[in-house]
Amino acid sequence: MLKNMVLVMLLATSLTGCSKSDGVQSIKDFFAKIMNSEKQENQPTSQSKFNREQLALLQDISGIWRSDASELVSILIQGEHIIFMIDNEPKEASIGEVDTVNGIVNLKMIEKYSNEDVIWTIRKSVINEKGDFTLKVITHEGESYDLSFVRNISETDKNRIMKIVNHFQESDEQIEEEVYQLEEVHADASADVMAAEAAEIEEIERSATEATEVAQAAAQAATAQEMVTRAQKIAINDKTEKLHLYDDVQSNNGMLSVTTNKGFSTWQVNNLSAAAANTLIGLSSGQCFNLVSKKGFNQTDGRDIQSVYQVAC
């Protein structure tokens, strides 16, 4: 069908205009100009690039036509622009070369999907001696469609076309607004996602920093504790406090009552023989001293003379 396979696919320019054609206006502005103007005569103007014969050919193809697919095709020309409306769907294109000898009008348009410039041809074919003619539309792909004349464009046709154009224009603007709103929503959503990701990254970095600080503090505490322990060990190993046992040592079942440089106190010997005592444990203080040197020990009365015990156990 002409509507689906020809004009809908390849005569489509945006309802807001065609950016690649030479000065193509919006369809709405185009129709407004037509509706507000008087019917033009087939006379070239100083601003027109067409001569008298070319303008006459352009006027010949203007009108209401019927395609061989039983579709109503409206062709409306204003200056160098041509409007197609297939049933109730308006399309816009620019007029290219006009060949009056062969009755050919080339149309410049944009392929809808590839956005490439293409050329279509409308050919006028005289069918009898009275000058009656038909039109043939030939696409850039070589497909052709026949159009038979129905009537000239009337004011009623113009009003009908204008209403349809306004409807399409409003629909297009609504679509653009919806697309804009969707883009705004998408942008806001993207911003929210980015903000959430940034906050998450910041939280991860903060947690990592805190974990690092905790680990460093634990390491410092462990180091400090190790240093304290080492200092304590050094202090113990280097301790030179000595216990000197003097006179009046009394032995009683493994107990020694000793007069020492620490004063008089009771000590327990590591075995029952006071004479063989190598370790003394203070019963009251809990201090432990190992035997370092022994000058003498009276086994008769248990007197320990100048024995020296040093802190170690």
Quick structural gist:
With 313 residues, this protein is of the alpha+beta class. Helices cover 36% and strands 33% of the residues.
Total beta-strand segments: 15
Question: What is the level-2 CATH architecture name of the domain at 50-166?
Answer: Beta Barrel
Order of helices and strands: HHHEEEEEEEEHEEEEEEE
What percentage of amino acids are in beta strands?
25-35%
* Main β-sheet, spatial strand arrangement: 1-2-3-4-5-6-7-8
Give the helix level as a range of percent.
25-40%
CATH structural fold name of the domain at 50-166: Lipocalin
Rg calculated over all Cα atoms: 57 Å
CATH class of the domain at 50-166: Mainly Beta
Report on this model:
The chain has 313 residues and is α+β, with helices and mostly antiparallel strands. Among the domains are: 50-166, Lipocalin; 246-298, no CATH class. It is 36% helix and 33% strand. The chain has four helices and 15 strands. The protein has helices at 2-10, 27-35, 52-61, 155-238; strands spanning 63-67, 72-78, 81-86, 89-99, 104-110, 117-126, 133-138, 144-151, 242-245, 250-252, 255-260, 263-269, 279-282, 288-298, 303-311. The strands form two sheets. An eight-stranded antiparallel barrel has the order 1-2-3-4-5-6-7-8, surrounded by four helices. Strand 13 (279-282) and strand 14 form a beta hairpin. Helix 2 packs antiparallel against helix 4. The longest helix has 84 residues, at 155-238. The two termini are 112 Å apart. Residues 4-25, 37-42, 234-241, 246-250 and 271-276 have low confidence and may be disordered.
